[in-house]
Amino acid sequence: MVNLDDGDTKTVYRGPTVPVSCVCVGGPGAATVFAGAWDKAIWSWDLNTKLPGRKYLGHTDFVKAVVCARIGGKDVLISGGSDKKIIVWDVATGSRLHTLQDSTVNMLAVQHLTIDPIASNKDQILLVSASSDPHIRQWKIRLDGWEQVTEELPEAPGQERRTISEHETTVYKLLFDLEEDQGDLWTSSGDGTAKCLSRSGGFVAADTFHHGDHVRAVAVTEQWVITAGRDEDIKFWNRSTGKLYASLQGHFDEVTDLLVLKGRVCSVGIDGTVRTWPLDQPGLDAIAEEQKKPTEEDEEADKDAGPELTADEEAELAELMEDDD
User: Fold this and answer.
1) pLDDT at residue 201 greater than cutoff 80
2) What is the DSSP letter of 53?
3) HSE-CB of 154 using CA atoms within 13 angstroms
4) E-state strands within 6-154
5) Residue 252 class from Cβ within 10 Å (0-12 exposed, 13-18 middle, 19+ buried)?
6) What is the pTM of this model?
7) Helix runs in the chain, H state only
């Protein structure tokens, strides 16, 4: 584990005075940083000059998710908020192209957005959204319009399915697995699980990993499924067997995101730190072994507790306590 809380900051983008909840990079030449914040605005900065750019105003509550795309030759920004809206923006002008809302199934606060790389093309993207309700929605977006995707139920041909509903409550994270050609959809949820939704099976759960408590993030590699969330632990699951391989500690508050980067996995926590973890088996084994060793605090606590009683001493103490009664 590497702890990136030593103050070695490379770049600071200044502007928001409230918590920033989401970040993405895009725009012309992928040279703009976009950040959604609790002030209901999306801020932007030039990636090269670090200078602030346009603010995108339109949400009426916290901005929770942002993602960039290119449709019909135009750079667009897509945002989702606690106001239950998904807004598509023209990056160049700051104007709103579309506002997406589910008119049939009540959609709660948007938690995450991602673009399906397999189902999208140069003139139309397929956006997938997750929210505080259990429903995962798919949206086809063009420059001249949009529509919510409806499909047949995999188990009941002829019946309409407006949403993908494989979880019991809030879906926090969506991730398309590009390690495989099929591009399955991975999800994490407040129901304590992370799931692999099979594309060939109509995005029905093919594998389920029971992390426990709210699972805020999931990441996948060829070897591992990695989950993290409210219990602060980073869990590594063997992707082939589905069995838990290691559960590592490091954060001291809820973990909100995971990202595989340059042969390691990075974790982000509410404790204000970014930590990195190895992906090789010997590296994980070394950390797990190190965390088994008692800390100085553990040793002091053992000293304060005093010597353990023998079985005869425990029996004698119990007899004395009964006599007192």
Assistant:
1) yes
2) -
3) 13
4) 20-26, 32-37, 41-46, 56-57, 63-71, 74-81, 86-90, 96-100, 110-115, 125-131, 137-142, 145-148, 151-153
5) exposed
6) 0.85
7) 281-292, 296-305, 311-324
Say whether pLDDT at 123 is over 80. Answer: yes
Predicted pLDDT of residue 9: 57
Separation between Cα atoms, residue 304 and residue 237, nearest integer Å: 37
pLDDT in tens, 52-76: 999 999 999 999 999 999 999 999 9
3-state helix, strand, coil in the chain (%, to 5): 10, 45, 40
Summarised one tens digit per residue, pLDDT across range 244-277 is: 999 999 999 999 999 998 889 999 999 989 999 9
Domains and CATH numbers, the chain: 2-324 (2.130.10.10)
Question: Tokens 């050609």 identify what position?
Answer: 181
Q: 178-187: buried (b, 16+ CB within 10 Å) or exposed (e) per residue?
A: eeeeeebbbb
% of the chain surpassing 70 pLDDT: 89
Place of tokens 């605005």: 41
**pLDDT value for 300:** 60
Q: Phi-psi category of 29—alpha, beta or left, where left has phi over 0 and alpha has psi -120 to 50?
A: left
Do 71 and 124 meet the contact criterion of CB atoms below 8 Å apart? yes
Q: Which amino acid is at 325?
A: D
